[in-house]
Design goal:
The protein is of the alpha+beta class and 147 residues long. It has 4 helices and 4 strands. The protein has a 4-stranded antiparallel β-sheet with strand order 2-3-1-4. The longest helix is centred in the middle third of the chain and has 18 residues.
């Protein structure tokens, strides 16, 4: 089963989490070989790759992302799953930070973002989006700061 969009049930749980504290969203993405736009979309006949469509998404979503106070704090291309299913490979990984859960939900509701997300849906074969609370570095490797 592939995962591209959040379900209503998950978003209800998301909104029940603390809404005013900063969050980070871990993104893992696997792109389609060929973008899958609806037949009536202007990009449908262009023969774009999933990676190309995701770049269009990034450009189209940039303004709503910035209005939400979002920042990309890390980006990388996964090379090897050292621990985990070997067949669960990813084309791109990044972490985006938001000033709050409300800011993230506000971005999702932004009309300009809603137009941009069609590119993401055309681009992505499978993904993971993991909400994390933002914390500073721990006292030691793998430890939370206990202060």
């Amino acid at each position: 089963m592939n995962h591209v969009d959040p379900t209503r049930e998950v978003m209800a749980v998301f909104r029940d989490l603390p809404t005013e504290r900063p969050i980070a969203m871990i993104n893992l993405l696997r792109f389609r070989e060929h973008a899958d736009y609806p037949a009536d979309h202007p990009e449908h006949a262009r023969g774009l790759s999933g990676a190309d469509a995701y770049r269009l998404y990034g450009k189209a979503a940039q303004a709503p992302f910035q209005r939400a106070g979002g920042t990309q704090i890390w980006l990388g291309r996964p090379e090897l799953t050292v621990i985990g299913p070997a067949d669960e490979t990813w084309d791109l990984a990044f972490i985006a930070a938001y000033p709050s859960g409300d800011a993230f939900v506000g971005m999702l509701r932004d009309p300009e973002y809603r137009q941009a997300v069609i590119h993401r849906q055309a681009a992505v074969l499978d993904s993971r989006l993991i909400r994390c609370e933002m914390r500073g570095p721990g006292a030691a490797f793998g430890e939370e700061d206990r202060a």
